[in-house]
Amino acid sequence: MAGNALRSTLSRVLGAVKSQTQPRTFSRGVHTVTLIPGDGIGPEISTAVMKIFEAAKVPIQWEERNVTAIKGPGGKWMIPPEAKESMDRSKIGLKGPLKTPIAAGHPSMNLLLRKTFDLYANVRPCVSIEGYKTPYTDVDLVTIRENTEGEYSGIEHVIVDGVVQSIKLITEQASRRIAEYAFEYARNNQRSSVTAVHKANIMRMSDGLFLRKCREVAENYKDVKFTEMYLDTVCLNMVQDPTQFDVLVMPNLYGDILSDLCAGLIGGLGVTPSGNIGANGVAIFESVHGTAPDIAGKDLANPTALLLSAVMMLRHMGLHADAKKIETACYDTIRDKKVLTKDLGGNSKCSEFTTEICRRVQDMD
Amino acid sequence: AVLSLTNARTSVTSGLVGHAAKVIGVATSKQREKCTYTGQIIPPPARYGGRHTVTLIPGDGIGPELLNHVRELFRFSCVPLDFEVVNINSSITSEDDINNAITAIRRNGVALKGNLETNHTLPPSHKSRNNVLRTGLDLYANVMRCQSLPGVQTRHKNIDIIIIRENTEGEYSSLEHESVPGVVESLKIITRNNSLRIADYAFQLAREKGRRRVTAVHKANIMKLADGLFLECCREVASGYPDIAFDSMIVDNTTMQLVSKPHQFDVMVMPNLYGNVVSNVCAGLVGGPGLVPGANYGRNYAVFETATRNTGKSIAGRNIANPTAMLLASCLMLDHLKLHDYASMIRNAVFATMNESLLHTPDIGGQGTTSEMVQSVMRNIKSSGPLTTEL
Q1: Which domains does chain A have, with CATH numbers?
Q2: Which of A298, B17, B254, B338 is deepest in the core (most CB within 10 A)?
Q3: Selection from A223, A296, A246 nearest residue A45 by Cα
Q4: Does B263 lie at the interface with A, CB-CB under 8 angstroms?
Q5: Given an 8 Å threshold on Cβ–Cβ distance, is B178 in contact with A171?
Q6: Pairing of strands A31-36, A92-95
Q7: Whole-model pTM?
Q8: What's the burial of A145, exposed, middle or buried (CB within 10 Å: 0-12/13-18/19+)?
Q9: What is the pLDDT of residues A94-141, one digit of tens each?
Q10: How far apart are the CA of B161 and the nearest CA of chain A, in angstroms?
């Protein structure tokens, strides 16, 4: 019993030390962040975010980069070397929506970025926004999705004509990595429980491996409660009572479906932030909505998703005070309902919405 | 020649002896193989004087108590049905129990079952018993109708979605192997035959029920070959049904739309795993797992159960389970056996009971018990007129 207490204190100290070594180096001076505006409404919402950060006097210096795919030596598609070099230096990125080319010959940009920086965890916190009413209130959960393997491995074969097989890959290493990230996140953000979502009754070996790794990692984090739940039970309960969930960790496909389900609960992709965490300390925060080419350039876009992702980025970097300031300003503006963009139910312009948030931020100082 | 002779005999004697004649005529099993699609399936042969025999699998958790209530209700309402009970012990690894059950269902043609628990800490050779039943009998279509009940409080009102889910292949093929230590591969199989079959079933059902649109749910942007094949098959079948609109939607967008705007959906068809997710989301939208019945149809057999297939271990034995799903599933079974009068009588009684919020069980926000609800259903049946036995 004493041994357990010693072990858990030790792990807690080690955990604290580990989290210290990561973003604490950013606590002084101006940090550089690679900004990828994206396509469509990307540039205008990026400008909005930059303006708000300036008004809040956040110590961040932006480096704008373009990530249109180019063909590197050897014929392989890759992102431009300036973009890669900038990201490797700054380690933090903020990305707007990217156009998915239909017949451009190269894979989607998101996939390229994921492969280049080994972005293994996709984190999506879903919090109900006061002022933007949905049938679901008091949602406050985080979905952490394994982003590299699982059902999206892309390995498919035609066995005989009319029979296709698609392979779902689960590895010990990736499962352990995502479980560790999930528990670290829970600890760093004062979350009380982590739930592993699986379908081990049917996919005994693959989801069974994922579950075993989660259980093993849970042993090192005794301060966080660990539960396991079947995917169908989670879906059923999520739609009836989303308040019972806290942090959810799961393989790729279930994560894709569940994270979009949770985004739907709070109001859609236009108000949902998202972050991708990679190996080597790289993290790219992004808005997950589309490029909306029909309203591009008309000053009608809603910058909330990108702004909340930027707030997530500030928290990741340790700038909690600035994050809270901007987040409160944003929520207050939406709650007041006086200046809202069209998709939130108002008829103001993007610039007016931005100015209002800037004003609130400056008033808070 | 044999068939025409029996047909002639049936037509002559049917006027005189009614049901009993049908028994003689249908003695040859040829008629059962003539079943094609919904509505044209010849009911299984009724033996022993017009009474049907149905296999009953109690299952685990709340299954046994709910099915006891169903039996009690059927006895009370004088439904001409006998149950052949087959118990399956889901914790032992021997396959004899499940094989006996499959044989019994082959014999009777129809079954009503509770969910069988799967212990997922056992090795992969011990497959999920429910899955073995479905694949063994080739019950390829799982049909679930999510309908908002007027007496139940939900966030969205007036939902009426039919979900048709491929029930035998896809991600549930149970084909897994560890190629290298620490790396597990699980195969998802999609075949052209099964995809065509389920798409055809969906469109036939939509036409029969007067529905306007069928939506295929897929993830073909990522799984280009597998879900691409499924989508292609759906499109092929859709071209043969010009009166029904067809569109497709990616599964993550589908779940997002379901929680914000569920009324845009009519009939949905999809492979196995997405069917699991979408059917649970829809069941949650209309009020929970205790309200929705489900049916598994194959070419020759049909098995009825609750739609979300929960064992309900935590509420077993406490008399608080919601019997609605199981009772409505038994009504679906009666419809399948062409006992429509009994089916509508029980269904109307259940709906009338659901309107009284005092009787609601805890899962839908009330404090009633299972037995109180069943008693109320029986009272409603008694007051609606037909012959009943003593309570």
Answers
A1: 30-124+268-364 (3.40.718.10), 135-266 (3.40.718.10)
A2: B254
A3: A296
A4: no
A5: no
A6: parallel
A7: 0.86
A8: buried
A9: 999 988 766 666 667 888 888 889 999 999 999 999 888 899 999 999
A10: 16
